[in-house]
Amino acid sequence: MAAIADINGDPSIPALFSPVKYDPQGNADGYASGCAEILQGSSARHIIGCVTLWSRKEVIPVLERFGGTLWYACPYEGFETSDHVVYMHACPNQQLLPLFSHVVPRFGADVFLLGSNYIWGWEMNRVARDLIADAGGDVRGERYLPLGETEVARLIEEIRATRPDFVFNNLIGSSSYAFLKAYAELGREDEHFLPHHCPVVSCNLT
Fold first, then answer.
1. H or E stretch covering 167
2. Rounded to an integer, what distance in angstroms lies between the CA atom of residue 89 and that of residue 111?
3. Which of 8, 44, 72, 93 has the most CB atoms around it within 10 Å of its CB?
4. Residue 186 in 3-state DSSP?
């Protein structure tokens, strides 16, 4: 909206943008219907929005039906392509290759994979497994929590028992915060899990 205001306020640009707004209020069921409302009820053909993988997948059939294009500006899990989506952010290989090339030589190739039980975690860990195999490492464990789950004691105990070289964290939101707090406590109890010995790395903590 700030960019539209700047362009519309610049007399040297021979164009005016007229935004059509729809707020699904974070309700996954509202994205497809909102997209259809915009494409059917206005001349707009470009949709800017969707902040989750789920919401993006909800609108693609609508875009295909009505000839719209989604500009998706969030990190992208890969393994999908659509002529109706402009994927503007990094996908797993662009994030994980440099991350693992930094971490593995410094800490080792044995990893514990975490994720929320959601598309992002599944796909990031799928790529991570291949990278670890290529490096001759071992996946010491792979666990998923329901979205929003903050009970992480069992995860901590499994990580303590398997003693990986690092932890790859794809937990989302409150689950990630609960895990990081518990992991810091684990490091105070066992120096193997201090950051300079066994770090937690992630591509979704921005």
1. strand 166-170
2. 26
3. 72
4. helix
Would you say how long the chain is, in residues? 206
Give me the CATH topology for the region 2-87. Rossmann fold (3.40.50)
Share of the chain above pLDDT 70, in %: 100
Q: Is the pLDDT of residue 52 over 70?
A: yes
Domain segments of the chain as ranges:
2-87, 92-201
- The model's confidence at residue 72, banded by pLDDT at 50, 70 and 90, is very high
SS3 content of the chain, % helix, strand, coil (to 5): 45, 15, 40
Residue 86 bridge partners (DSSP): 71
Q: How many angstroms from the chain centroid is the CA of residue 9?
A: 35
Q: Among 59, 9, 1, which Cα is nearest to 34's? A: 59
The whole-angstrom separation of Cα 38 and Cα 34 is 6
CA distance 154 to 152: 6
CATH of domain 92-201: 3.40.50.2300
User: At residue 189, what are phi and psi to the nearest 5 degrees?
Assistant: -85, -30
Q: What is the pTM of this model?
A: 0.79
How far apart are alpha carbons 124 and 164 in whole angstroms?
A: 18
Whose tokens are 């599944």? That residue is: 122
- Under the banding of pLDDT at 50, 70 and 90, the label for residue 206 is low
Computed from CA positions of residues 97, 102, 108, 110, in that sequence, does the dihedral angle turn out positive or negative? negative
Mean pLDDT rounded to a whole number for the chain: 94
